[in-house]
Write a structure and sequence with these properties.
This protein has 98 residues and is an alpha+beta fold. Helix content is 58%, strand content 21%.
């Protein structure tokens, strides 16, 4: 009887671990799908503004718990362009070099 109880407990623990691993795998697959979608849409962009809007939208989906922005720096012109993330809209700002 003890052996059966011990085996049942170990089986339940293993099942819980498998469920946790499966949940993590499902989240990872969802992120990969979103990244692939974003990649496809970025490749179809003709302008930077289109790309900024797509990046803004997908970053909010991929990182919903974070706030902030993305900074793009062009070395040849020494200007910095920030794209704030907010509600799927992009708000580009250009700043002079420091």
């Amino acid at each position: 009887m003890r052996w059966k109880k011990r085996c049942t407990g170990e089986l339940q623990e293993s099942n819980e671990r498998l469920q946790q691993i499966n949940s993590q795998l499902q989240r990872t697959l969802k992120e990969i799908r979103r990244l692939n979608e974003m990649s496809d849409r970025l490749q179809a962009c003709y302008t930077r503004e289109q790309a900024y809007a797509i990046v803004s939208l997908y970053m909010e989906q991929l990182f919903p718990h974070l706030e902030g922005g993305i900074c793009h720096q062009r070395i040849e012109k020494l200007s910095r362009r920030d794209v704030e993330l907010g509600g799927g809209k992009f708000h580009p700002k250009t700043f002079p070099p420091r």
